[in-house]
Amino acid sequence: MAGALVSALRDRGVVVHWDGDLKEQNVVSQAAWMAQMIAENLVIPVLSEAFVEHFGRITESPAHRGVRFESSLIIQKYYDHWRSTHCPIIPVADRGFVVESAPAVLAGIPISRLGEQPGDGIDEIVRRIRRLEGAAPSQLPPPLEPHDIVSDMEWAGSTAVSGPDLVREWLRCLVGTPLDAGKFAGTFSAVENVIRGSVDDRLMQEITDRCVVVLNTAPAGSPASGEKARALIVGLAWLLRRRGEFGLAARVVLEAVDIAETEGDLLTAALGHASLGHIRRELAEGSAGRSRSGHLRTAEGSARKAIKLLRRLGDSTGRIGACEHVHAHVRWCRHQLLGEARSLRAAARLAEKAARHMSEAGMPIHQELCLLRAEIAAARGDAQRAGELVERVVRSLTDRPADSTAFSALVGRAHLVSAEIRRHTEPLKAVRLAEAAFKIFDRASMTRFADLSRWMLVTLDPRAAGVTPADVRYLERRCQDPRVRLGAVAERGRRIDERIRPRWSARAEWRDILKAVESSAGDQSSPTARITPFLGG
């Protein structure tokens, strides 16, 4: 595609610098040539499958090294452009390209399409080039100094509306001149504070792209090498978790923990262990059988390690409470996934302890912890307490942006808790809330929570699903996984429709069905299949 595009543009009088011509030009350094061309000219990245797959990735593999280098230069050019219009990048793809698969840095720029017929779409690209060439850039305003931006971020705090704009100003300040690793190291703690309070996925992508550049360029022993572990944990691994790439996120954090422990940075090591607790819990939610138990055991061990390290450091900032929150969430999942009654009691104790420690340290209690406490209270039958906590979460979400996965998860879970506490008093409203939760989770591709919502709908109206209340109680006693329960209900319906002769009793029939469905679910449940090697530079 690239060769045909170059020929078509040259036929229309456009001067094109293409790396496919380098052999004829006998350049001294291909890397230096590419850096100069991208810095001085409009850039037309062709969004091929290989280009998209390797754009901005960190790996020591020699394969596709040119794409990775080129993408780092394009990311730099994107941040160098400070105006809201006339971005000097024109992404090009074929007609069948899915916009959602474009690299996040390029996703906000209109993509020009090439048709199947020669020349189809070229004229529109030429018009865009001519408009950009004719747009004389106005003088760039002087950037703020990093310490001024950091002061503003620290004053604003993690929940201020101005936080994301300050972080973007910080990004522009860093890319206005060649990257100073010391500036990055000195300002990242304030940036971390803002992004942890933000639900802006695009902002997180921008910061992660900047982390990629830093991790690829900061030499060993430089001021930024001490911040590499923190950048890996709160940047790259955090984004991978949002994408559902939990196996790769775990590898990133393990490398970060190793770096932090080697440099004696126990605080960052504790942060890494807490992050591993989250990731292993999330892996458990997508696993089955022994794999699930193993992930939960590892998650609990990671949370305990984080708490132990912080206690050794004498931390009084509330971080211990945050790690107790991780521990509480793991025990809550043990109750949900393994049916352990003692884990429900432990989760309740740890969640309240976390809230108390965070409050004593003056740290705000996040909606996530508040909602976890509501879920636990509902499971223990304390509807009044659960309702109060859910109401607090809903009030706090009214001023938050509603266009992120994090926001969707919180709203959907709040609907589920509200449905649970209204199960007996307002069943019709409970059904509406569960349906709303399912739509949210299904739209956000949050499979486990979508399954929980669907199962709640079955329990609220068993006969609509073709089962009895006794069937529901039996399935809940025998199986903790809502996906398997739903599969069993579907299999029972199939057998009835196909007039397959049932076993001699309903329990024997359900035992057969559960055995078949659990075996099938175990074969399909393999979150580790998404793991790819990570070798940070």
Would you mind describing this structure in some detail?
It is a single chain. By secondary structure, the chain is an all-alpha fold. It has a domain at 1-134. It is 67% helix and 1% strand. The protein has 25 helices and 2 strands. The protein has helices at 2-11, 22-25, 30-40, 49-54, 65-80, 104-107, 122-134, 146-156, 163-175, 181-196, 201-217, 228-243, 246-262, 266-285, 289-313, 319-338, 341-360, 367-379, 383-397, 405-421, 427-443, 447-460, 469-478, 482-497, 506-524; strands at 92-94, 112-114. Strand 1, helix 6 and strand 2 form a beta-alpha-beta unit. Helix 8 packs antiparallel against helix 9 (163-175) and helix 9 (163-175) runs parallel beside helix 11 (201-217). The two termini are 32 Å apart. InterPro entries: TPR-like_helical_dom_sf.
Computed over alpha carbons, the radius of gyration is 27 Å
Largest beta-sheet details: 2 strands, parallel
Q: Name the strands of the widest sheet in spatial order.
A: 1-2
Through-space gap between termini: 32 Å
Q: Stretches where pLDDT falls below 50 for ≥5 residues?
A: 136-141, 177-182, 523-537
**Distinct helical segment count:** 25
* Structural class based on helices, strands and sheet pairing: mainly alpha
Gross morphology is globular
Proportion in β-strands: under 5%
> What percentage of residues falls in helices of 4 or more residues?
55-70%
Secondary structure: number of strands: 2
What is the ordering of alpha helices and beta strands?
HHHHHEHEHHHHHHHHHHHHHHHHHHH
Mean pLDDT: 78
